Amino acid sequence: MKKLLPSSLVLFYLLICCAGNTIAQPTIPSSGINFSSIDGTSMILIWTAGNGTNRIVVARAGAPVSAVPVNGTDYNESNIFGNGDAILPGQFVVSDDNGQFLILTGLQPSTTYHFRIYEYNGSGATTQYLTSSFASASQSTAIAPTISATNLVFSNVTGNSLTLTWTNGNGERRLVVAKAVTAVNANPVDLNSYSASPTFGFGTEIGTGNFAVYNGAGNTVDITGLNPGVTYHFAVYEYNGFSNPVYRTVSPGLGSRITNLRPSVPSSNMTFFNIDGASMQVSWTTGNGTRRIVVARQGSAVTAVPADGTDYAENADFQLAASISTGQRVVYDDVNSFFTMTGLLPNTTYHFRIYEYDGTGASIGYLVTSFATGNQSTAIAPTVSASNLVFSNITGNSMTLTWDIGDGEGRIVVAREGSAVNASPVDLTPYSPSSSFGFGSEIGTGNFVVYSNSGNTVDITNMQPGVTYYFAVFEFNGFSNPVYRTVSPATGNSTTDIRPTVPSSNILFSNIDGTSFTIFWTPGNGTHRIVVARAGSPVDAVPADGIDYAENNDFQLAADLAPGQRVVYDNTSSFFTMNGLLPNTVYHFRIYEYNGAGAGIAYLTSSFASGSQSTAVPPTISASNLLFSDITGVSMKLTWTNGDGERPLVVARAGAAVNVTPVDLTAYSASSSFGSGSDIGGGNFVVYNSPGNSVDISDLQPGVTYHFAVYPFNGFSTPVYRTSSPATASQATDGAPTGPSGNLTFSSVDGTTMVLNWTSGNGTRRIVVARAGSAVIAIPVNGIDYAENNNFSLAAEISP
User: Dihedral sign, CA of 750, 751, 752, 758?
Assistant: First the structure.
């Protein structure tokens, strides 16, 4: 099927090609030539187009353009100067299209180029140029700056970095080149762009040892990656252009500066965190050295001083670190401001010094006249135990334990089933907890960690009913390598309930269908629960302790607890979907909580949840008042007043009354596109199946009467219908449209194109017939779908 045209403004391009027509010459030239991105070998031209369908740009080096294009000649163009057709010697066509900009390449630096833009219409032998007026302009490629950068100033000098500033010359940008030890001895080359990096040695190398450290429009750069005690020389070259720049290499800005031999600012503000039994993290504010070492000592202050020219081996594990002096070990050597130190002893104080340095190997120079110092003990065992264990919320498989905390940073809770906790945690050993008994780390035999944190309560699950559980709470300090207080831990015990004490409640029903529904409830405090169902009468069967009843959520397949009273659920959840039911039937329920498993099952039978629910019943009130609106040849809107069903099913038939009714427990697919929904027999198609009261029906045939019947129903997957006295009605679609299009106007009229605009009539679609030279007299024939093309020369004829 063809795509429908818009019902309001429609754009339609009509191509009229008639042999012998004369191509008109443009009347308005291009104007306003501007230049950008001017480089040593390229530039960009931008202009305002005239009214030609196309235009050519002619370029000439060194003198104004004088060449004039010849009508009927289609010139070859190239945006590489010199590669296009030359209208006159040295005057080349560099662009030929309908655009308004040009990227011109293949130019020479410091050279002025002249341009003319000629508008034209037509192509090939019909080309007509506007030569009486044209846009013209000229522009030089990039030229070398005439004023060098000056006043090179150095600041923030350290052993590995410095800041260089200068006064700019008159270039658009500038390149800064640096060399160690001796003066810069290589100049940048015109038309070459150099990549710069403020890290010395990482930018482009010019010649040998001359590195680009800056390339931009500013006047300052922070240079890093230098070596201490070395003189660095700099040259600042002004340039114009970008990708193919032109440099001023005469008298560049020059300067030099020696870096510091050793740092001048020490580290400071040493702090400690994540303090553990065998480790800690040390952090500080760095000084101005390129690197620093940390020297550590156990039990006494650090007194060792590093020697210039010595690169000390380091290891963050204190036991493995090399000594700078007896017992004084290098535990860090790098550029950062923190590290984690390991290999320590619990309850032991460690002392530190941080020495800044510059250089590498034999050129290392340490700052030893000032340094950061600090000390910190590793974790020590708490001195106050937890106390006052209290048990609450006790069920057959869970309980809540609370306590008063001691003076540790954290504590672990160890639980054991049936007898007292008989193992203590081991210093420097972290344990994984789980509040589900039996899943945390096991200490010794049967002692499981159920909690490890800084709080004072834990909800413990996965217990067995009627069993006594014993607990011990151990305070600790540290994290990854904790130190425990194992003396006098807090202890206590409690027994889980043998059977539940709180029944389920609040039974609710949803998704009620002809053969199924979903049951929800609020669980009691049993570990499990069974649901017993009965059709037609209340449940009175009672489960017996020690019996694990088989269950099935299909009522027809479920086992009996008593005759007709069937176990349809046995699990831990709070809902399930029950099926295998009969429509229009009331089912009754009881929910019994229980603890234990197998012969140890104990049911709560003194209280329980109960409820009842009918499966879906047929509606009792039919729909009514079928009305039709928005009638066209292919569509209409149907509305009605609903009956008392949850949803209406709308059935449609073409040419004759609906003569098949829906079948109970059968769900039908609906589609408002007539013929695409379920066919319930003999061309009776379902067009609607939702909770509303209207449907827009499409894909109808013009001049055909459609008949409708509305059947209310309850349910979803297995619905129950009211098939007696359905609401019925019929309506014919429109035949031919009655309102024509109007207000035909024309715009954007050109030599070969025009735009047609009109106001649409009341047809679903419309065709446009065009004729050259005479009025249209052809009339379309009903039943024919004409092929169309908005190119007049290619469109199919409705009549010669």
Answer: positive
What does the alpha-carbon distance between residue 193 and residue 351 come to, in Å, rounded to a whole number? 54
The Cα 396–Cα 383 span in angstroms is: 36
What phi, psi does 15 have (nearest 5°)?
A: -95, 120
Q: Are the C-beta atoms of 578 and 551 separated by less than 8 Å?
A: no
How many CB atoms neighbour CB 112 within 10 A? 14
627: three-class secondary structure by DSSP: strand
* Contact indicator for 438, 446 with CB cutoff of 8 Å: no
Contacts for 533 with CB less than 8 Å, ≥ 6 apart: 539, 555, 558, 565, 566, 568, 578, 587, 588, 589
Q: Residue 390 is encoded by which pair of tokens? A: 């209290």
User: Three-state SS for 233?
Assistant: strand
The residue whose two tokens read 């405090």 is: 525
Residue 684 · residue 724 · CB < 8 Å: no
Beta bridge partners of 44: 36, 103
Record the tokens describing residue 299, joined without a space: 């039990």
Pairing of β 727-732 and β 705-714: antiparallel
Q: For position 19, what pLDDT does the model report?
A: 36
Percent of the chain scored above 70 by pLDDT?
Answer: 97
Nearest to 175 by CA among 213, 224, 221: 213
- Strand blocks (E) in 597-726: 602-603, 609-614, 624-629, 636-641, 647-654, 685-689, 694-697, 705-714, 720-721
According to DSSP, residue 679 is labeled B
* Residues β-bridged to residue 747: 755
In tens, the pLDDT along 183-221 reads: 999 999 999 999 999 999 999 999 999 999 999 999 999
Q: Model confidence over 96-114: pLDDT tens digits?
A: 999 999 999 999 999 999 9
Backbone angles phi, psi at 121, to 5 degrees: -115, 165
CA dihedral 321, 323, 327, 333 (to 10 degrees): -60
In this structure, of 423-432, 666-675, 745-754, 770-779, the range with the lowest mean pLDDT score is 745-754
First-residue to last-residue Cα distance in the chain: 26
Residues 141-165 have a mean pLDDT of: 95
Q: Give the residue-averaged pLDDT of 261-270.
A: 95
Angstrom distance (rounded) from CA 540 to CA 564: 11
Residue 370: how many CA atoms within 13 Å on its side-chain side? Answer: 11
Token pair 């109970």 is found at 664
**DSSP letters along 740-776, please?**
--EEEEEES--SS--EEEEE--SSS-------SSS--
Would you state the structure tokens that stand for residue 507, as one six-digit string? Answer: 């039974």
Of 330, 494, 326, 474, the C-alpha closest to 400 is 494
Measured CA to CA in angstroms, residue 314 lies from 270, 300, 311, 321 at distances of 19, 20, 9, 6
Q: Token pair of 539, please?
A: 């449940």
Strand extents, DSSP E, 6-157 = 12-13, 31-36, 43-48, 54-61, 86-88, 91-97, 101-104, 112-121, 128-129, 135-140, 150-155
